[in-house]
């Protein structure tokens, strides 16, 4: 029987190519590769099927990198944002390690390692500086990138995420949501489990036939062992948390009814991060704010990104 989610991939890929981005795989080092969608104008297509595309130029427009969360790969997560951004910006959409076609033979599973690999891959693609937009798990990776590579990361937009998953936040969040572990929440093994994840992630109840839930589980939740290890590598002790002194502007763009990382967490984080951080909430939206309210989200997103690059041009 045809997997309906897999069958939609060619359509999704076609829409991405219409938005002028194309797939490309970066070998960061032997044993570690990261798959991307990159601006088509930066790639030379091969003349023969067995040849690999080549990078022929750096991004020609200001660069935006969209970093996905834990439940889906890059272009599935950002399907409603790519087309809204590519006319004005060079857009890069990575798949983090163990999502999509990205993998490593290393044993490291921390957000720091993901950030190091993503930064290294972007440099190989010719990206010198960028605005990074991070959702959920991708937001934690984005925070690490900004901390470690301030010369590369001009600004951050963070949705439904936190600086780091401390053990107290992890326990409190899971208890409030009624889950026993992060794996139970984020790595569902059944239709019932996936429905439970969607029920806490969305503001309004999303209805799909069970067949579609089954197909989504098959396609989007591969590499379960490695992803469980990523979740284990996510949680740190309260004693180990420090607030970096970020030099970048940070915009927290939140679903007002986010049940996973509540608006109160974002408000506290804004206070902790200080004066260069702004917070904007979107009504009638939950954790999946960029999917539930894409037009409003895109409008807010573009306004902030425009302000970042306009300020850079004014300085120059």
TrEMBL record:
Segments forming domain AB hydrolase-1: 62-168
Q: Which Pfam families does the record associate with it? A: Abhydrolase_1 (PF00561)
Concerning InterPro entries, the annotation shows: AB_hydrolase_1 (IPR000073), AB_hydrolase_fold (IPR029058), Epox_hydrolase-like (IPR000639), Meta-cleavage_hydrolase (IPR052370)
Q: What is this protein called?
A: AB hydrolase-1 domain-containing protein
* Species for this entry: Stylosanthes scabra
């Amino acid at each position: 029987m045809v997997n309906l989610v897999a069958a939609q991939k060619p359509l999704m890929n076609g829409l991405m190519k219409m938005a002028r981005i194309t797939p490309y795989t970066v070998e960061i080092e032997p044993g570690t590769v990261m798959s991307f969608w990159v601006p088509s104008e930066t790639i030379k297509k091969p003349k023969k099927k067995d040849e690999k595309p080549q990078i022929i130029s750096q991004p020609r427009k200001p660069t935006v990198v969209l970093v996905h969360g834990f439940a889906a790969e890059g272009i599935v997560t950002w399907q409603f944002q790519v087309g809204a951004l590519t006319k004005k910006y060079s857009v890069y959409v990575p798949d983090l390690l163990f999502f999509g076609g990205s993998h490593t033979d290393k044993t490291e599973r921390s957000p720091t390692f993901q950030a190091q690999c993503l930064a290294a891959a972007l440099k190989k693609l010719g990206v010198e500086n960028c605005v990074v937009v991070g959702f959920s798990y991708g937001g934690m990776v984005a925070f690490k990138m900004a901390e470690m590579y301030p010369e590369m990361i001009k600004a951050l937009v963070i949705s439904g995420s936190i600086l780091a998953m401390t053990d107290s936040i992890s326990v409190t969040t899971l208890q409030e949501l009624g889950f026993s572990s992060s794996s139970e929440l984020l790595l569902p093994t059944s239709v019932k489990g996936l429905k439970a994840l969607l029920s806490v992630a969305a503001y309004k109840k999303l209805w799909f036939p069970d067949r579609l839930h089954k197909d989504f589980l098959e396609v989007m939740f591969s590499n379960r062992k490695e992803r469980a290890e990523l979740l284990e590598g996510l949680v740190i002790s309260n004693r180990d948390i420090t607030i970096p002194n970020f030099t970048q502007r940070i915009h927290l763009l939140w679903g007002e009814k986010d049940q996973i990382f509540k608006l109160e967490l974002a408000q506290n984080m804004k206070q902790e991060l200080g004066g260069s951080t702004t917070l904007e909430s979107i009504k009638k939206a939950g954790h999946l704010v960029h999917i539930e309210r894409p037009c409003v989200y895109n409008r807010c997103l573009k306004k902030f990104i425009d302000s970042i690059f306009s300020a850079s041009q004014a300085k120059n």
